[in-house]
Structure of Core-binding (CB) domain-containing protein:
Amino acid sequence: MAELLDGLERDYRLRDKWTVKTASAVKPTREHFGTWRAVEVTSDAIGKYIEGLREQGYSNATANRRTQLLGQAFKLAMREKKLSQAPFIPRLSEVGNERQGFFETADFEAVASHMPEPLGDFCRFGFLTG
């Protein structure tokens, strides 16, 4: 699997898509599956990996990001004729996983009023437009 994940990183870098966020998401997947042979990474093994993530308290969204990159590595390997098939990778529901705890308008204004201009106006624009 390390070879497949290396190929994914190389592809992302060639297309200028490799970011710190992507590297951060690939790292734990590489740590878990890096020494496995690609044929050992079955749908069952991926399901157990997801179960383990959930038992550790990770959200469905985190599991999806990590397994999404795994799936992309498999698809790239198939496109490059390194593999003839890839395991099914389930996508978990992310309903109810929306961020919570944003500032209310009064709270935001209390903070923004202490910001130097034009930073305060810039932040107000961001707050109002999302």
About this structure: The chain has a mean pLDDT of 91. Residues 2-79 form one domain. The two ends are 39 Å apart (CA to CA). DSSP finds six helices and no strands in the chain.
